[in-house]
Each structure stands twice: as C-alpha cells, then as structure tokens.
Design a protein that fits this description.
Layout (H helix, E strand, L loop, with lengths): L10 H4 L3 E6 L1 H4 L8 H16 L3 E6 L2 H9 L8 H24 L5 E6 L1 H5 L1 H16 L3 E6 L6 H5 L2 H12 L3 E6 L20 E3 L3 H4 L13 H12 L4 E6 L5 H6 L6 E4 L4 H10 L6 E5 L1 H10 L8 E6 L6 E5 L5 E6 L4 H7 L7 H5 L13 E3 L1
Helix pairs in contact: 3-5, 4-5, 9-11
Length: 379
C-alpha cells in the first residue's frame, strides 16, 4: 500500500470498530519451544495501539496445551484426553500471566474467559457469555479467550480455536475476524511442496473452490487452512470479514487496519445487517406470540423501530430470554418476529408499561426493549 490508498476490498477493515484476533499455537510457542515472550509482547503492543485508537479488540488465544507440553517436557502432542487436559491446565497459567504482564505495560486490563463450543450453542449460556463479553469491552478491558480444554473432552478431540474465534465474532457481531498464523495466508497450492504456489489475496468465504486448496494442521495445532476457511464461513454468517495472515509480519494488525493487502481476505456474501436479518428470517421455530396494539404495529412497519413493552397487549407461549417469538396484530395477522429480551413470565409483568418502569417492576432491566430492532424482522 502506498500514499494512503486502500487496496480494493480492504476498506471493510479500515472502518472496523470491533475485531476478534486469533493467534495460533505455532506462533505463540515459537513452533513448540515454549511461550515466545518477545513475540507475544509484540502482538500485545499492536493490540494496544488499536485499543488506543478506539477499536474494540477481543483476543482468542491458543497455546495452553502447547505451553503445557513444553513445561511438562513432552515432545509430541499426546492423543489421550486426560493428558491433553493436564497439559492445558499446566499451560493456561503461563499463558494468562504472560498476557497480563504485557498488557499491564500499556495500562490495559485483561480478563481470562474460558469457553467451550457448548457455551455458544446453549442459548442461555450464549446470552450470558455475550452479556459478559460486551460488558468487558464496554469497560475497555481486553478479553483473552481460550477453549476450556481442561474440563471438556470432545472439544479437545474435534474443536479448534479458529472455529471458536468465528463463534466469538458471531457472538459479538464483530466487523472482522483476524486469524494470525505461521503462514502468509491461503495459497492456491501447498507452498511447502510447491514453490510456485501463489497467495490468494481475496475471495468469498463461501467459494467452494477454496476448500480444494486448504491443507491440514501442524504438529502443535489442531487446525490448518481447512479449519481457517470453515471459520471464515462461520464468521460470514454474521457479516464479518476474515483475514488469514502471518503473525510474523511486522506491525501486521496496524497494516491490516490501514487496508494493506496482507494475507488472504475472505468476504461474506452479505453485509452484517443483511446477513443477520437473513439468519433471523431462516429461524422457523418460534416459542411464543406477542399481540401488538395498533400503534406498535404502525411504528414497526413505518419507522423500523424496536418493540417496546408499552405497545404489547398479550404474551402467549413458553419462551425464555433470547428465544424467537412471533408478533401479530389484534386480528392475528403476522407482523414480525424476533429475539425477545425477557422470558414469558417477566414479559407479562411489563406488557403495556413504559420502559422506564421495567426496573421497578422486575427488580432489574435487561433492556428497555422487548425486542431490539437489530433482532427483529418484518414479515
């Protein structure tokens, strides 16, 4: 990139306000030689610079199992689940302390967050995780997320932090997922065996031809380009772009944020809001029904507003917070559907009431809206 000109297709990164950065095991452990304190300090410096510029950064970090292997003197990644759990437990402390120390140099607080894929598939835990992470980000704390390898089994065998990074991008509706690896990006052939292989600079996350050129993982990690491609496809569901780039490139995060053509950029089919609305439209199962008064129907249809409790007359069903509910008018005609912020019992207590009375009635206020406009689609 020269003269401040952003390369075509990279403008989405220039305007990104919330970014999930995933760093792989091979980078963090210098290909298995223990945690690379100097390199980790360099990535923290880069994240701190983005943080100072007002960009919200959430870090998904591999490395616990690999760091534990080094401390335990193991040369090869074990296959036994209990040994992997032990390595994760030994390595996680070192990993957390390393990040904490480097971010402290910049006066930035960090928070350790250990998740499993189950946490992001169970709706209640998903919403709790989202609330916690959003609160941390609002407090200007950098969450450092890793898979909870110490207590789970199937995630250790089949999971990977590329996928976790994509799920976190979905969870937080991030603008971009940046996957830092020991490769320059996705090539049209395996560069380890083909010196003529060319870097794919840009493509669509859902392009089926890319799967044919994605390879396997290394000795330390569980992923490879195949998992990174699948992660990009997952991130694209919420409209996030994905970049696969070398973490060893100098100032890689700042250069990506400036729009420089590093690594492989994988674009979603649709913009974030369009992708989210399409996802909402595809949710067929509803858990309950809200009956709206005439005024609420008019506001939703004409202004695209959120649904407030004051405009709702009845609530039926057995829905919980975060479930999909159907909105109908007083004649029973379908108006909209969306993800509700309150369970049925709490919702019934605040129907017809102004939002400023929610906390007095329930003793808490999750949100002033029953359904936020971003989580609602007209029918």
């Amino acid at each position: 990139m020269t003269d401040g000109i952003v390369n075509p297709g990279r403008d989405t990164l220039v305007g990104a306000r919330r970014v999930v950065v995933k760093i792989g095991s091979a980078l963090l452990t210098n290909d298995g030689r223990g945690l690379d304190d100097v390199a980790i300090g360099g990535w923290v410096d880069q994240i701190a610079e983005l943080h100072r510029r007002g960009i919200e950064v959430v870090l998904v970090s591999s490395g616990a199992v690999a760091a534990g292997m080094v401390r335990l003197g193991w040369q090869r990644r074990p296959s036994a689940v209990h040994e992997l759990q032990a390595a994760a437990a030994v390595g996680q402390n070192s990993l957390t302390e390393c990040y904490e120390g480097h971010f402290a140099r910049h006066g930035i607080l960090t928070a350790q967050v250990l998740l499993t894929h189950d946490d992001l598939s169970n709706r209640k835990r998903y919403l709790n995780a989202r609330s916690a992470l959003r609160t941390l980000v609002d407090l200007r704390v950098v969450p450092v997320i890793n898979e909870n390898d110490t207590v789970v089994t199937d995630e250790i065998r089949f999971g990977d932090n590329d996928t976790l990074g994509a799920l976190v991008a979905n969870l937080l509706e991030a603008d971009a997922l940046v996957i830092l690896t020991d490769q320059e990006g996705l090539f049209d052939a395996d560069p380890r065996g083909n010196p003529g292989a060319r870097l794919i600079q840009q493509g669509r996350a859902d392009d089926p031809s890319l799967a044919a050129v994605a390879g396997g993982g290394g000795a330390l990690g569980r992923g490879g380009m195949a998992t990174k491609l699948r992660a990009a496809q997952l991130a694209a569901r919420s409209g996030a772009v994905t970049v696969i780039a070398s973490g060893r490139q100098p100032a890689v995060l700042a250069r990506l944020a400036a729009g420089e053509s590093l690594g492989t950029l994988l674009l979603p089919e649709q913009a974030p809001m369009a992708a989210r609305k399409r996802w909402l439209a595809g949710q067929l199962q509803v858990r309950g029904t809200l009956t709206l008064d005439e005024g609420a129907v008019r506001v939703l249809r004409r202004q695209g507003s959120s649904l407030l409790p004051v405009g709702v007359r009845q609530a039926a069903g057995t829905f919980a917070r975060g479930d999909m509910v159907l909105c109908v008018d007083e004649q029973g005609h379908r108006v909209a559907k969306g993800l509700i912020n309150y369970g049925v019992e709490d919702a019934r207590q605040i129907l017809g009431k102004p939002s400023q009375r929610i906390e007095a009635i329930l003793g808490y206020m999750e949100s002033p809206e029953l359904i936020h406009r971003d989580n609602l689609i007209l029918l």
